[in-house]
Amino acid sequence: MQQLVILTGMSGAGKTVALRTFEDMEYYCVDNLPLTMLAEFVTHIESDVTFYPKVAVGIDIRSQNDNLSGFGEQLAQLKMRQLNVKVMFLNAEEQVLIQRFSETRRRHPLSTEQFKFSLTEAVRKEADIMQQIKQSADLVIDTSQQAAMQLKQHIWQLMSVPSDKVSVIIKSFAFKRGIPFDADFVFDARCLPNPYWEVELRHLNGKDEEIAAFFNEKDLVKEYMKDLSHFSKKWINHFEANDRSYITIAVGCTGGQHRSVFLVEQLFAYLGTKGIQALILHRELD
Predict the structure, then answer these.
(1) Res 275: pLDDT
(2) Domain final residue, candidates 92, 125, 159
(3) Does this model's pTM top 0.90?
(4) How many Cβ atoms from other residues are within 10 Å of residue 240's Cβ?
């Protein structure tokens, strides 16, 4: 079945990086396609499955003259065709978007002479316009805390999972840098023993054998891991039964180096033994 990814989201959230990533993955890519041309474009690619097996289309606020409020209706019609359609929405915090535009000195699409919004007003106006599209997305990726290479890696991993399976993303993070905005479940591992206070272990991370040996001697860590594993497996199955496409499980500790990384690696291995495909993202290590 042909695969069609509609890439959309907030200006400054990383759509250019994402579209280039899809190109690297051998998708046929079209950026800034007017919404009114989407149905005609899909008819065109359906006529040549061999040449267009995988297609990614960028649709965003630059197409607002085509009335983006009709996106939901267009999407419903597309999903009735012989296509595997996914909508990926890239988002970021307001202050992050403002900072990115300020640093690059690029103009926001709504702060041009035609619209005359200030940068802050433009970002807020765009958020209002794009809200309906965001609600219809299969996957929302918040890039506020991601560098370009992290976003690229994230997309590569997501698109490698078979489309008939729920995509489980297990993410380690540091509470001192904030909770991941895209997390469905957040677990706090700061109650566990911390190898950071062992001088000979401080420079290592949760992937290292010495750290694993440290944790494997702690009954509290074993009990935490048991509860985390059983909870995750149970609710992943419920999400999959209800046709959920993506679920993100985030495990955090103070610095995102030891406890959270170890637990994420262990959870990944456990889910693999249960036939559940998962992806790992170590936010602070990456």
Answers:
(1) 87
(2) 159
(3) no
(4) 16
